[in-house]
Amino acid sequence: MKQEITDRKIQLEFYWGENVPQIKGDANQLKQAFYNLARNAMQAMPTGGKLTIRCSADDNFVMLSVSDSGCGIKPENMQKIFRPFFTTKNAGTGLGLMIVERIVREHGGSLAVDSRENAGTTFTISLPRRFRLVRGLPAPDEQKQIQTKEGQAE
After folding, report:
1. Domain boundaries, the chain
2. b/e burial code for range 4-41 (CB count within 10 A of at least 16 → b)
3. CATH T-level assignment (fold) for domain 2-128
4. Where do the H-state alpha helices sit in the chain?
5. 24-41 pLDDT, tens per residue?
6. Where are the beta strands (DSSP E) in the chain?
7. Are 69 and 49 in contact (CB under 8 A)?
8. 46 has pLDDT over 70
9. 6-10: which pairs have CB atoms within 8 A and are 24 or more residues apart?
């Protein structure tokens, strides 16, 4: 995609969190999902703009966001973008986002979209961490007593 990014005068920015954990999944399918999102973002900026890719993690998920400074998605189209064969492009199959959504769902993840017309769009994929972090709950405060049904303190 490097040549297309250069040809379209797109500024590319990466933000990668420290120690991003592994996820479990089919590398080829996930690559296809990421490619579809990046390609859509570039097509939304035919005369240049900024493509930002961010990766971060929390205790349960690894999140990858693809943001563009393009035309955005019209509000009336937001409910249609994941439907098969829906497209606003002159040349397109209308299958790209449906494929992304299906791949993410099959990997136990979720896909979110935030878009503002004439200001850009961000798609965020959240995928389960391969090894979840388990955090212990703090010990109960010894000063508090638990009340039983009879109102007696234990």
Report:
1. 2-128
2. eeeeeebeeeeeeeeeeeebebeeebbeebbebbbebb
3. Heat Shock Protein 90 (3.30.565)
4. 2-7, 27-43, 96-106
5. 899 999 999 999 999 999
6. 10-16, 49-57, 61-68, 110-116, 120-128
7. yes
8. yes
9. 8/42, 8/45, 8/46, 8/47, 8/48, 9/47, 9/48, 10/42, 10/45, 10/48, 10/49, 10/50, 10/51
pLDDT, greater one: 87 or 144: 87
Exposed, middle or buried: residue 128 (CB in 10 Å: 0-12, 13-18, 19+)?
A: middle
Do residues 52 and 42 lie in contact, with contact meaning Cβ atoms separated by under 8 Å? no
Rounded-to-integer distance, Cα 68 and Cα 127, Å: 21
